[in-house]
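Input structure tokens:
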């Protein structure tokens, strides 16, 4: 049972003998007004239904990944501040995100990494979802190491300092097992990049290596500590992500193509959303940005230590009015946030 309850004023029922009987003259006086009200109700019935739907929160499922947090909050800000469509942000795991939208427990997800990272989820739920297409192109996933040394990552002559791990490809990790303690630092276990990394360990015969599950926050913390100490580290990584703007990092070559090539992040909605919420669905269909635009918001959220992503999303909207207007299309925006 939902914890939210609706309360209605108590109305006392009247018996037949207690109900006053209007006179015939009263009926005659009221009839024109009643007919006019009935016509108005019939003429505006569809509009009233739309308003009822718009008053219900649009449920956005997301995962606690920096890119997913950014997309969920920026879309919620546009819908709420410009289209007066309230939103509910539902944080969950990657597999639950897909399932919830497919089964109608949520309305939309903005973090479908295709065609490779979330291929299994897409195969499982594709017939229960409407794919609105990419909202960001040029994604990449794989194993990531620091590209230079610590500090400013340059020496006194301006030359780049040498990284503690001087390898180029995933297969070379086999010779660095002792230096790395046999650890590859991952994120939440349901993420597609985690299953791909398990495949990489097998494909590249990295015996003695363990994939350490955790969270994105834990992964970036381990990475930061290793860079500060100029210690070898390898983590699961992806673009777009604020860490590539914070440190000099690079992907290890993946000659077997375990992680696939470049991809896109897609928007997926439950079937029927375009009928129930045509204005919101239109905005979601037009929602698209590039890695540079997203990374601006990623950096602001990171600098704010994740305290208020929605406030940073509002800041991003104010800085990018033309892009916001393109997402709104013909919809009439309300006052700027």
């Amino acid at each position: 049972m939902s914890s939210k309850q609706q309360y209605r004023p108590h109305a006392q029922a009247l018996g037949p003998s207690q109900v006053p009987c209007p006179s015939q003259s009263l009926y005659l006086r009221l009839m024109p007004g009643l007919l006019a009200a009935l016509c108005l109700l019939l003429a505006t019935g569809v509009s009233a239904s739309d308003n009822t739907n718009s008053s219900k929160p649009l449920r956005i499922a997301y995962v606690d990944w920096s890119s997913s947090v950014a997309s969920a909050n920026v879309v919620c800000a546009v819908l709420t501040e410009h289209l007066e469509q309230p939103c509910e942000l539902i944080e969950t795991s990657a597999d639950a995100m897909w399932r919830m939208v497919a089964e109608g427990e949520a309305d939309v997800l903005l973090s479908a990494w295709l065609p490779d990272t979330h291929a299994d989820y897409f195969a499982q739920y594709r017939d229960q979802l409407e794919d609105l297409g990419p909202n960001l192109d040029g994604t990449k996933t794989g194993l990531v190491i620091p590209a230079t040394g610590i500090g400013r990552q340059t020496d006194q002559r301006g030359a780049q300092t040498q990284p503690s791990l001087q390898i180029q490809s995933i297969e070379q990790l086999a010779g660095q097992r002792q230096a790395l303690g046999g650890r590859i630092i991952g994120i939440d276990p349901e993420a597609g990049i985690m299953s791909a990394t398990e495949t990489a360990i097998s494909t590249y015969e990295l015996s003695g290596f363990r994939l350490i599950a955790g969270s994105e926050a834990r992964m970036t913390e381990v990475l930061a500590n290793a860079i500060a100490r100029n210690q070898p580290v390898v983590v699961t990584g992806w673009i777009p992500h604020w860490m590539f703007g914070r440190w000099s990092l690079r992907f290890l070559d993946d000659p077997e193509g375990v992680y696939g090539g470049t991809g896109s992040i897609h928007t997926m909605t439950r079937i029927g959303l375009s009928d129930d919420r045509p204005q919101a669905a239109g905005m979601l269909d037009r929602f698209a940005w590039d890695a540079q635009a997203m990374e601006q918001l990623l950096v602001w959220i990171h600098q704010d230590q994740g305290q208020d992503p929605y406030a940073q999303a509002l800041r991003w909207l104010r800085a990018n009015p033309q892009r916001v207007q393109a997402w709104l299309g013909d919809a009439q925006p309300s006052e700027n946030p």
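The domain at 140-251 is CATH 3.40.190.100 (D-Maltodextrin-Binding Protein; domain 2). Confidence is low (pLDDT under 50) at residues 1-28, 34-51.
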